[in-house]
Amino acid sequence: MDEGRIKSITLRLASAADAEQIRQIYNYEVSNTTATFDLVPRSLQDQQRWIADRNGAFAAIVAIDPDDEHGEVVGFGSLSPYKERAAYRTSVEDSVYVRRDRNGQGIGKLIVNELLRVAAASGFHAVFGRISASSEASIALHRSCGFELVGIEREVGRKFNKWLDVAIMQALL
After folding, report:
1. How do 91-98 and 126-132 pair as beta strands?
2. What is the pTM of this model?
3. What is the per-residue pLDDT across 107-117, written as a single tens digit (0 to 9) for each?
């Protein structure tokens, strides 16, 4: 890891001005990987709406590198309600995406740790990561941030003509 590059990273709330860069990061994952089970890339309007709908504990955050030659947003993350029913309100689900050319540099860990801090400060008790079971890097990232594997959902998604398992990871706050 290039310590100089990670030191230049800052985290802040996502704004409407970040929508296009977030959309590019996310749409790469939609079109090329199983990191998300979305099948249709987001339009700019969809991404702007996604940002506008996030606030409080469920706000989106971005990882910014002002020295990056491809755009300063190098990753993003958010918390979402885990389930709709009232008894689940003390649990949330995290999402984290890092631009492919910046993977392995510690950016994902910064984002996940910030999401855990926000979740704890917001009074949540548990944070879940629902991760494509074939995503060893994401599983390792979550494990490095204190998450434990608590289950596998078998063949619950289908993308690229393959059945996909989901690893459920959990961190108690």
Report:
1. parallel
2. 0.94
3. 999 999 999 99
CA distances from 59 to 55, 75, 159, 166, 168 (A): 4, 14, 28, 24, 22
Angstrom CA distances, 34 to 3, 7, 45, 138, stand at 29, 30, 23, 11
Is 166 strand, coil or helix? strand
Q: What is the side-by-side strand order in the sheet with 10-13?
A: 10-13, 60-64, 73-81, 91-98, 126-132, 162-172, 148-159
Handedness of CA 137, 155, 96, 67 (dihedral sign): positive
What are the residues facing 11 on neighbouring strands? 63
Tens of pLDDT along 46-83?
999 999 999 999 999 999 999 888 889 999 999 999 99
Residue in this structure with the two tokens 């996502």, named with its chain if needed:
14
